[in-house]
Amino acid sequence: ILEAATRSAPIHPGFPNEPCRSRYNAAPQSNPCRDLQSMSKEQTNQSWGGRFSEAMDGFVEQFNASVGFDRRLYRQDIAGSIAHATMLAEAGVLSPEDRQAIVAGLEAIRDDIERGTFDWQTSLEDVHMNIEARLTARIGDAGKRLHTGRSRNDQVATDIRLYLREAIDAILETLGRLQAGLLSLAEREAETIMPGFTHLQVAQPVTFGHHVMAWFEMLDRDAGRLRDCRARLNVMPLGSAALAGTTFPIDRGITCRLLGFDRPSDNSLDAVSDRDFAIEFCAAGALIMTHLSRFSEELVLWASAQFDFVNLPDRFCTGSSIMPQKKNPDIPELVRGKTGRVNGNLVALLTLMKGQPLAYNKDNQEDKEPLFDTIDTVQACLRAYADMVPHIEVKAEKMRQAALQGYATATDLADYLVRKQVPFRDAHEIVGKAVKRGLDTGRDLSEMSIAELTEFSPAIEADVIDVLSLAGSVAARDQLGGTAPNQVKEAVRRARKRIGLG
Contact 70/127 with Cβ under 8 angstroms? Predict the structure, then answer.
């Protein structure tokens, strides 16, 4: 049922979020305090209007409505309703004829929405009531029976879980595409030498492939967090009703199976009010964005004239309106900037939930916009990187020249002395004096003669030449996790197997 209901429609069906709070700008009704007895059904909320003696204020109607942003849940809402109607029919609560009419009506509504002919009504608050009202208008009383044994509280909790589950799957696919691009780049540049940095100061030579594999490892942890989040969210709230369960003889196992959940929730109070899964996803999203932001920072630096390590494809950059020579790395900069909004979404959800008593509260209407924005932003940023990374042009000679600066092989010389039985602290001091000589004379250690190096320690011999070369330095780090080219290639092989590409 879920597959049939969702078909191949995109996760985000073209309902952009409105500007913040723009939905509150509608003009109030001319006479918001009329007696409901004089109002038509179209002017009252059919889901709860019977208890009230005056109409909702026009501004409050806009303030209260969520359909402007939660209508993107329409496919999940329809899938949940079809599963619920099927279960009610199998349990004998709903007749087969009503069930058939409901399913046909919901499928027609879904088609209307996807054709763009569905008329969304703010007066009906949310996606759930808009669909239910249209269903009742289409098929009559059978549509009114659909809500038997459920509440909007368990309905929306189910919809969000279905939506986020699908979104995580899509994000994992894009993240995997980025990982594959990184692996190809790392393999291609496994022998390209660049300076490794600490404190943004030249530290030791590394291979560019090794550096790229560090990016891969960050994203691999991100993928693991998303999979963990998906497993925890795949619990079905439907059947919890408002907060206490239902008196109808429902079979939650049926709806659970039809909707692809692992199991029904164990506690109705928790099920309708839990948003841990949304917070967990936003935390995972914030870490993804933090990693992409770190990648962005390096790419922005490397693409500058001062570094000149890489050339980004023109189609991912822009120019200047006044300076003709400029090529600005806008995509990495935008990704770096968008990290802030995803971090803000996480804090917003944490703050939203921190003071809520059990069970459902209207506060939770505010959970969707931060969640939807995180989904959209993370997916877009991953896509941008997945498209860009395979086409990064690496300037190997520029990187090699930069690695020759800053005495990157000083640690190799210290290690060499230790292997000659010089205590490490003594070796550290010896090499420090050699570096001081180099700074005073404007030379790298590799540019000093053996005779000159021997002045600092008699343990230094002719075999030190290989130690002080960049290629020798990276080749010497030939152990699991090291920067040696063959280790990088082996790491790529293992990584491809890990993500199902090898």
Answer: yes
Chain-centre distance for alpha carbon 137: 39
218, 182 contact by CB (below 8 A): no
Compute the average pLDDT of residues 71-76.
98
- Evaluate whether 229 touches 132 at the Cβ level (below 8 Å): no
CA distance 17 to 4: 26
Catalytic entry in 320, 321, 428, 469: 320
Whole-number Å distance between alpha carbons of 75 and 429: 69
Q: Which residues pair with 198 in a beta bridge?
A: 201
Candidate list 8, 199, 321, 449, residue with the active-site label: 199
Q: Which of 260, 227, 256, 375 is nearest to 3 (CA)?
A: 260
pLDDT of residue 406: 87
pLDDT recorded at residue 20: 39
pLDDT at 50: 73
Catalytic-residue membership of 293: no
Active site residue 84: no
Q: Give the span between the Cα atoms of 56 and 90, in whole angstroms.
A: 39
Mean of all residue pLDDT scores within the chain: 91
Question: What letters, b where the CB count within 10 A reaches 16 and e where it falls short, cover 448-481?
Answer: beeeebeebbebbeeebeebbbbebbbbbbeeee
**Do the Cβ atoms of 135 and 149 come closer than 8 Å?**
no
Q: How far apart are CA 502 and CA 485, in angstroms?
A: 19
pLDDT for position 320: 87
Q: Which of 7-21, 149-163, 210-224, 350-364 has the lowest mean pLDDT?
A: 7-21
The neighbour count for residue 336, using CB atoms within 10 Å, is 20
Closest to 381 (Cα-Cα) out of 228, 171, 169, 166: 171
Which of left, alpha, beta for 251 (phi over 0: left; psi -120 to 50: alpha)? Answer: beta
